[in-house]
Write a structure and sequence with these properties.
Elements lengths: L2 H22 L4 H28 L7 H25 L1
Length: about 90
């Protein structure tokens, strides 16, 4: 769900709870709408927190092949620079 869609659903929830309070006079609809909005926010934040945690914990399991390739390229560059410097002496 996109943020704008969630924002729209939250606004619709507030409007519906206001209409229900006006119709029935029971103010319990407002906390129910607030709970619904809080659940939507939590559902959208959980993946973000998980991704941030993986980055902070340096979880590189899905990037190990890319990292190995990059390290091999760096080693090859260092070796070629070393041999170039040795041959120019």
């Amino acid at each position: 769900m996109t943020f704008s869609f969630q924002d729209t659903l939250g606004s619709v929830g507030v409007i519906i709870s206001t209409v229900l309070i006006q119709l029935y006079g029971w103010t319990g609809f407002d906390p129910i709408a607030s709970l619904f909005i809080a659940i939507m926010i939590a559902a959208s934040v959980i993946p973000l927190v998980m991704d941030t945690g993986r980055i902070l914990a340096l979880d590189l399991a899905d990037r190990d092949v890319v990292i190995e390739t990059a390290l091999e390229e760096v080693i090859h560059l260092l070796i070629s620079y070393f041999y170039r410097d040795v041959l120019t002496i």
